[in-house]
Amino acid sequence: MSTTIMPVSDLRREAGRVIKRLQESGETVYITQHGRPTAVLVEYEQYESLLAQLEDLADIVSIETAVAEPERDYEAFLAEMGIDVPSED
User: Fold this and answer.
1) Which of 53, 68, 76, 78 has a beta carbon 3.0–4.6 Å from 83's, enabling a disulfide?
2) pLDDT tens figures, 48-89
């Protein structure tokens, strides 16, 4: 997979060609404005794949964080949430 750096002015003139190249080659296009990076173009399926990977990583971090939390009593948890627990008497 190749990488291209392109000024936004070139993208305006060549948008159709750039999109076709993205679809065919899967390359990444970095868009610059005034010589500074401003955006990145990737093929749609690659973008969706990156989002799915990011969600998976966030899930893993959440699980690892939850495992590290101390255990607490269910009634104490409910009380902390402001939920009244009816007595079993």
Assistant:
1) 78
2) 999 999 999 999 998 888 887 778 788 888 888 888 877 776
Query: What secondary structure does DSSP assign to 1-68, as a single string?
Result: --EEEEEHHHHHHHHHHHHHHHHHH--EEEEEETTEEEEEE--HHHHHHHHHHHHHHHHHHHHHHHHH
> How many CB atoms neighbour CB 40 within 10 A?
11
Residue that has been written with the tokens 């296009």 in this structure: 29
Question: What is the token pair recorded at 13?
Answer: 């003139």
CA atoms within 13 A on the CB side of 1: 9
Domain range summary for the chain, segments of one domain joined by +? 3-70
pTM above 0.70, yes or no: no
